[in-house]
Specification:
The structure is a homotetramer.
Chain A (H helix, E strand, L loop, with lengths): L8 E9 L7 H8 L8 E8 L9 H17 L3 H7 L1 E6 L8 E9 L10 E8 L11 H18 L7 E8 L4 H9 L9 H19 L22 E5 L7 E8 L2 E2 L2 E8 L5 H11 L3 E8 L6 E2 L2 E2 L10 H17 L5 E4 L10 E8 L2
Helix pairs in contact in A: 2-3, 4-6, 7-8
């Protein structure tokens, strides 16, 4: 889609509470009441109440139920839904986080609806499916960078400075995938399925940083090793239910109508409430959605205080980190319906991460 | 101890990071360097990195290692340490919470050390040991109320308005204790060992509310049922390693010297950062310690948003709640070395709880 | 269905390994290769790899994917599938248990296929949907007893002695269901969602015992209290994804053709390998399926040895119990593809439970 | 100690149930009743009810309480106890496993007490403390092999064929230890604290295999990689509370009196009940103790059936494996008071492990 065609578009974001991973009733209701046209939905980003780790089946379950609903409402096969809508479910609602869906629509703006300034713009990109041995490696970094650039063109976002959040759903390794590669004589980046989630998230984030010019070079040896390489807007989430990277770029663009804008900050550590508060104050208007990344600081400390997330064999560190950052942000925004996704490798500084806010213009 | 004898006293609070439940090296160091006299220690309140639930042995482990150290440094048997120092370990450092000890000392103030106004005052109280069938019932409520009053007299805190935090360690039921009662023909309040922690915390909190005049009557039928009955300063924590209630009252009192003061607020829900921020601003000076309670709101919602803490069979709700409130408060105080204790039954409103801050006078 | 109509029937049981809750490929393959006619499937019983507790969404996910497959292969709406096939997913593959599906078919026997003796017979029964306040109470007990009798008639199983396993899927209480009842002024049997699973399983098992004449009376006050009341063949499993009881009766019946037979024993405790070995030896032929129940002995002991299942706040006791009984039975049968379902309230003696084996006639 | 000096010795083994990691009352009772002389205790091996993973503090807690008891009863400082008694606590009583202590004593045999044949012999060995960067590497392998040989000489066990169980407690890496090494410019074998437990267990097992001639060479590159290298009698257990390897060799030796003998088998996989049953039948007499190792088969399968232990992010695979093997062995021995220790790297074949039984001579 050319930048020209972006004229006359309008972004819509619905934030819908769910009662479980299978709950599509709120979305069905919005469609049935005519609030949104299902054909305009380009992405759905959501939080589900699984563990957010390897054996989290709530992501696949929610994705399946959404595809079923959309296939029915659109009158098309489920396979076609996959080509039309990027569905990115992130598991884990630890602490007070509230399960919900963010439904992103690209509508045609009504005549005369030209906005006074840049407005929320949404772009979509997809990589090809990765082989198990490509996950966490150069192939994933490079393909992601290409797809991010394509998504920015799709959104009509001209400058990297106008891209405020790049959400990516990426694959992970399972026992079966590792063995499939082994049968072909291929070696995967790690034999630890849980660690493969980190590598996939890390390689994807480096792809974003490359595409946006935040870094010049992203060698595969840097993945989950050289933390100086990072993106301030990448948000990557690994799931067992897909093999390619699905990308949603959110930014502000000319030629988009409506009353939504987006801004972001980089939290320097997990408890950097000031960064989040600053975005909220810059943005001002009614809050529409908050998207953030969380991770346990790899140093084992937060502002010089020891944390226990990395030595806990009962609860994975990503679960602790989501609960923590969810608490910090809930204190700032007065709301627990926050998209906080775990595993912030190369997404902001070690232990910190990006937080983006979508609001209405004042 | 009479109010008169309170003259010439000074409260000291050391906040010491630990590297595990067995780590008494920082306290040993402070004693060995002459920073504190072990004979002045009246209470130690700490966070340990267990699960904070029934099978959390880190509380007993930390308590044992502290008793060993104090017995050695004081040159007395371990049993005598128990009579001198109230040791209250709270398990669970979920999210970013940092394991630490708060060591409370009552020193003799140097001559001429009279403070310009009320200063931090510390009082100690103990109930008799409870039988299993008394836990969560009238006997525990009444004995706690008596012991709180005794602790206030001990501290020279004249008015309930000057009591800002009443920390209680209380017992729980185990399979063995329930069976011991059954052999005597006695029936316990619950057969569910995890639930017994809630009942014990709840009855203890009602005892505080009675003692401070926050409520007039606390029938045993109200325990963990009538949430309108509550205390704004109680903080109760259940552990397997004791059978009585151990009580530490913190407040401001005349006749205490030094530069420490305490204040508190009641968080109306788990994300009430404003309440915490207000205390911090009222207090102003250097932060010395933060103590707070956390619980999953029993309604299943926070400000109208669903939370998943009560339906999670992998991680107990008290663990989620500590992580959440720890995040909210870390965002406010810029520090994760916070005493956040789970299970706030009758401690503040449902889903909320007290937060107390000790600081230096400006 | 009359006993007469049972003539000419043949039971088939397929045991299919799955790679996850969403994996219907093995069943699709069996249908597509013509091994089974999907129209003959009357029940699917399976193990999925969730936690088997309140927030186990793998049961609903597996059930949805099976319904989708069957609706497509049968060319009927999904709602019709629910009326045709009882789908009973049990979560939890702790220890070595291997996720799988048991597909039960009722085929028309080929002419001249009369068996030399009784053969595996399958009957299906359904109760009406229960209101939240009926779960764990008289209404559930009575309706279950009726439905079990109907299922036995459906199977042409004349005598209770020929019924060897009665599998029931029953509902549980969630926060939402409890609140819905409260809005109508109704009080539910428990406010603890996890405990509601036990009450629902217990009431359902008492319904089986009543139907089979194992007990004469089953007052609601006995549910999860009077362990002397029990069934030696009931196997009940609670799930969030349904509101009624779905019943599958397995026994041996005249008039059924084929080469399958079933037998069972009651394990007197969780480690009663002898009971399981005896069934295996009585049955003799090739092993087709094993179905068993597991629970932590409520006494806290197994043969006088303390177990820690009931005091563990990290892993629920049902998870420990499945792992344990799965290990005992894997040692006996040399196979981990076992249907071991947790929560054996009133199903066999406290801490024990039924184990049924389907095999080929020698 | 020379073989000659072994004459006149007698091994004693007490199996004592505990009510928690702090419970030394049964051992104190045995000492106080004169059943055993504390000066004869050379090793205590036990199961405690922690998670058996990185943050399992029950091992250290139990070890401390045992040292306190022995120091008091022996009238010596705690540091001297460490030199006299090898204390090896293994965390994790999943499934039905029952917490207990095995107390190994070396007594002087009464005159005329010469046994008719070889009897249980106990030898002790210790390595020096390891630096963090030596864990899981050559230094640990070589030092362990030396210490095992010393322990065999200590026991008077002449031939490797007479060594039936070599129990080793070995250290692990923590965040702090890794950082300490980094400050010295040293690189540790892994940055993953949980994985460090596997490497330490693996290197220690290879040391046993070397010492007993089961393998000729054990390069550090084989640790947790080349599963063809292994010992049939090693049992290694990692814990945070020590830095050296502590070794207890159990075998049958001439010159030992008493009525105890030991035998062992290697389970070919986790459900190899036949191997355990064969040992039990060979041994015959009264059962005194069972010691075994457990691990999730790294192939992801047991006898061709998929297991889910390695993809479970809620419960670590070592916990699943202990529950499973504990169930298999409880079915064989009719007892849950079994020492089943997790993590069987290079201890028996992948997914299997050694099982040793101590019994009374018939």
């Amino acid at each position: 889609m050319s930048a020209a065609s972006a004229r006359g578009r309008r972004a819509r974001v619905l934030r819908l509470a769910t009662t479980g991973p299978q709950d599509v009733a709120p979305l069905a209701g919005a469609i049935d009441r005519g609030e949104i046209d299902p054909a305009t939905i380009v992405a759905i980003v959501g939080k589900t109440e699984g563990n957010g780790c390897v054996n989290d089946f709530t992501r696949g379950y929610a994705t399946l139920t959404l595809k079923l609903l959309l296939a029915e409402r659109l009158g098309c096969p489920m396979a076609e839904v996959e080509g039309r809508v990027a569905i990115v479910m992130s598991g884990g609602t630890e602490g007070g986080l509230s399960p919900h869906l963010l439904v992103f629509c690209r509508e045609t703006a009504p005549d005369g609806g030209a906005a006074a300034g840049p407005r929320l713009a949404i772009g979509i990109g997809l990589t090809p499916a990765f082989k198990p041995e490509e996950i966490g490696r150069n192939a994933q970094i490079a393909a992601t960078a290409e797809a991010v650039k394509a998504a920015m063109r799709d959104a009509g976002i001209a400058s990297p400075a106008d891209a405020h959040f790049v959400q990516i759903k990426c694959p992970l390794l399972t026992k079966e995938r590792i063995e499939e590669a082994a049968r072909r004589g291929a070696t995967v980046a790690t034999g630890d399925t849980y660690h493969s989630m980190a590598l996939s998230r890390g390689a994807s984030a480096l792809g974003v940083a490359l595409a946006l010019g935040e870094i010049r070079d992203a060698p595969e040896s840097a993945v989950c090793r050289d933390w100086s390489l990072r993106s301030g807007v990448a948000s990557t989430s690994a799931g067992v239910e897909l093999l390619r990277n699905e990308i949603v770029v959110l930014g502000n663009g000319a030629g988009w109508a409506g009353d939504l804008v987006i801004d972001h900050a980089v939290m320097s550590d997990a408890i950097d409430a000031d960064a989040a508060r600053a975005v909220r104050e810059r943005l001002g208007g009614e809050l529409v959605a908050v998207l953030a990344k969380a991770e346990a600081s790899p140093s084992g400390e937060i502002r010089g205080r020891r944390h226990t997330m990395l030595d806990d064999s009962d609860i994975h560190s990503t679960r602790h980190a989501r609960a923590l950052v969810g608490g910090v942000l809930a204190g700032v925004f007065g709301d627990t319906m926050l998209y906080v996704s775990g595993g912030a490798e190369h997404q902001g500084p070690p232990g910190g991460g990006p937080v983006a806010v979508i609001g209405k213009v004042r």
